[in-house]
Amino acid sequence: MPTSRETILAALHARLSMLPVTALRGEALPERVPADGLLILRDGEPGEPEVTLSPLAFHYQHRAEIEAVVQGSARDAAFDTLTASIGAALAADRTLGGLCDWIEAEAPRPVDLPVEGAGSLKAAVIPVVLHYSTADPLT
C-alpha cells in the first residue's frame, strides 16, 4: 500500500499530466524538449513535521518542485501560458481530491539557457508546497 506522501505526489503528477504538455516524474531532462513544453515533477523534501500528540499526527509542509521548460522562438509566451496553466490546474482542486489539506505554488524564477546549435530554453523551478498530515512519518 502506498504511503500518504506517494499517494499525494502521484495525484499531483496525474493533475499535471492532464495539461497539454509532456509531464514526467523524477526523470532526467531529455535531450529534446517537446514542442508543447515539458514538466518534470521532483519529489522534493517533506521537511521537519510539526507533531501533535493526542491523537499522534505529523503535519508536513512538503516542498515538491516542478521543473517547467519550453523552447522555441515564442518561448516567452509559451512559458507564460505554461505557468498559468499549472496555476489553474492547482487552483481547480487545492486538496487533490481530499488527499492533502492544501496545495500552493510559489512564483517561478525563470532563466534563459543557451543551447548549442538549437534555440535557447526558458526554464524555471516552481516550488509547490503540499500541506498534509499522517499518523506515522513512514506511512
Give an overview in words.
- Strands 1, 2, 3, 4, 5, 6 and 7 form a 7-stranded mixed β-sheet that branches.
- The protein is of the alpha+beta class and 139 residues long.
- It is elongated, with a radius of gyration of 16 Å.
- It is 23% helix and 42% strand.
Q: What is the helix/strand order?
A: HEEEEHEEE
Using only C-alpha atoms, the radius of gyration works out to 16 Å
How much of the residues is beta strand, in percent? 35-45%
What is the arithmetic mean of pLDDT?
Answer: 93
Termini separation: 9 Å
* Count of runs of 4 or more consecutive helical residues: 2
Q: Helicity range of the residues?
A: 10-25%
Short recap of the structure:
By secondary structure, the protein is α+β, with helices and mostly antiparallel strands. The protein is built from two helices and seven strands; from the N terminus they run H-E-E-E-E-H-E-E-E. Strands 1, 2, 3, 4, 5, 6 and 7 form a seven-stranded mixed β-sheet that branches.
Q: Which descriptors would you attach to this protein?
A:
seven-stranded mixed beta sheet, alpha+beta, Acyl-CoA transferase, 7 strands, transferase
